[in-house]
Recover the amino acids of this structure.
């Protein structure tokens, strides 16, 4: 027992006799990350095709509604592109943006400003039909896309 107590006493004496040395070091560095601008456009409610009836041809146009979800991470906004497909229509009128757009044969790009996030975009299309068109089913005469600014 005496030997164990002596060993403990010696260990305590050495521990208190040796000064504790604790080193501190500091380092600083800068971290940066580049997050690329992204935009996704998803059709929530858009017909896959345009069904034209005899009544539509007599009226001269066909109205179609579409809803999209746009998600983007750039605080500058995004660029919405609308491209008409010629053939069955003479022109495409687009409602739901800041002003009604009329497209004939050229694509239109619209800058959409706003805070990053996700929102629904409801658009109305009036397809002014070509007089030579006939009743039937056709691919939707407009292509809607979005991309970063």
């Amino acid at each position: 027992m005496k030997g164990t107590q002596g060993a403990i006493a010696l260990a305590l004496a050495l521990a208190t006799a040796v000064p504790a040395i604790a080193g501190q070091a500091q380092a600083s560095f800068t971290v940066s990350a580049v997050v690329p601008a992204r935009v996704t456009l998803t059709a929530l409610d858009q017909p896959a095709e345009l069904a034209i009836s005899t009544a539509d041809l007599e009226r001269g146009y066909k109205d179609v509604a579409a809803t999209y979800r746009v998600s983007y991470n750039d605080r500058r906004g995004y660029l919405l592109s609308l491209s008409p497909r010629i053939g069955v229509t003479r022109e495409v009128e687009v409602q739901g943006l800041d002003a009604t757009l009329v497209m004939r044969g050229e694509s239109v790009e619209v800058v959409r400003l706003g805070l990053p996030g996700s929102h629904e975009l409801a658009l109305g299309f009036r397809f002014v039909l070509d007089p030579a068109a006939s009743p039937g089913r056709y691919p939707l005469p407009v292509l809607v896309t979005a991309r970063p600014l």
Summary: The chain is about 15% helix and 45% strand. The chain has a mean pLDDT of 87.
